[in-house]
Design goal:
binds alpha-D-mannopyranose, eight-stranded mixed sheet, disordered N terminus, 7 helices
Amino acid sequence: MVYAGVRLGIKPQPKFCSYMLLITLQLIWCTIGSATKIRGVNPILLDRYQPDADGMFHCLNDSTIAIPADRINDNYCDCPDGSDEPGTSACSNSKFYCENEGFFPHYIPSSWVDDGVCDYEKCCDGTDEPKGKCPNRCAEFKDKYERERLENNGIVDKGVEIRNGIIAKSQHERLQIQHELDRLTHEMGDLQSKLKQLNKVKETRNLEDGKLINNAFEDYERNLEDARKVVDLQMTQHSDLTERVHTLEKLLQTMKDNYNHNFNDPAVKLAAHSFEDYVANKGILKNVNNDGNSKVKNQLDELHTSFETSKDKLLDEWQKKQEGKKSGSWFHFSAEDIVDAFLGIRSLDESSELNKQHSSVGPARLAKNIEDLESKIKECNQSITSDKQSLAKDYGPNDILRSQNGCISHQIGEYNYRLCFTGELSQIDSNRHGVRIGHFESASFSDDGKTLISKYSGGEKCWNGPIRSAEVRMKCGLRNEILAVSEPEKCGYMVEVKSPMACQESQKY
Ligand code: MAN
């Protein structure tokens, strides 16, 4: 069936004079402009529907198939591609073009044509049904569309403004973390070099302590040896004298016992009486006993041995302490340092300089200062690691979510869903029992730029199922709100959210 019943076969006549040609072309133009409109055909394809010199139409997808032009839209399907029936429902594979003048044109499946239903969603001009059945509503649709468009663009404009503010805040926070990281890295350098200095002071002091132990014992040993020599000499002299006294006493005793009284020798008599007095006052040596001397000698020997043992023990302990410190400490001197320190070349010189600086600090204070420094370094290290992790984290395009540490929640059915944008997403039941759906992981825009998708993973394991996770799909809106939550797969959730974070200029139309 031919729409409007008008069809003209027109062929330009190239050999006419130019005036006639101009008039003819104008006529032809007018004729094509009005007469060749064919129901269901997109105007850009109209020339393909003009009959050839023999009055034939060639199927669009196969020009070898030709049918008389009056069989276009005759409600009988001739072309395999259905192109001969654009304005009827005769061919199931044909498409009907709704021009929707003043609004957006659309194609609809040919089966919708003349089926008694006004398909206004696609065909606001009502041309999919016979004339008079569906009044043209394109103006009304256009108005509605315009209102929605303006509203959308207004929201996007404001949303983009809010989003820019959020981005600025996030970037400011990023900058602050970067500055803090720089400061901590600098501080770390200082702390480490201070610790190195203090450890060197301690090391040197320990080395010197070791020497002092040796020196102290050397002195003791030398003194002990000298004392022993003196005692030995004294004892020898003492034994000798005792021996001599004993001999003399025995001689005098013999003299006293055996002298002849009849000789009346006054010198002998006096000597005998003096000896008697001497014995009466002091007694005489019964036998020579040197036990006391050997006791003193033994005690000196014991003292020497105990000094030796103590010295060895002390040196052993000191040695162990030194080794324990070297292996237990996270900070290591280079082999060169240690050798130099032992040889007393470089490090000892440096250290004595350092020692001077720290000379007023006692060993306990020094140990405490080292301990404090080590714990500061540990803390500093932890902060550096956490700042680095934070800077490396994916907070979405322009780092937008970095500053978004707030939460929103919404009751849907039996559950209350709580979304902390850069934290946890959880599902709380009516008994206030919460289940963690996931932690914020990363965010990015969908390919069409209309949705900001943030992912939450590592939630609690589902009974007989996977570990919970979710996708939060944010669309442009002026404030953060949860619209809907669904569970398309068991324990795999989808949360629909409105947020200015999802607004982009490209969403305007
Ligand atoms: C809870 C909720 C549901 C989930 C089931 C799985 O009831 O977390 O969302 O589907 O557990 O057992």
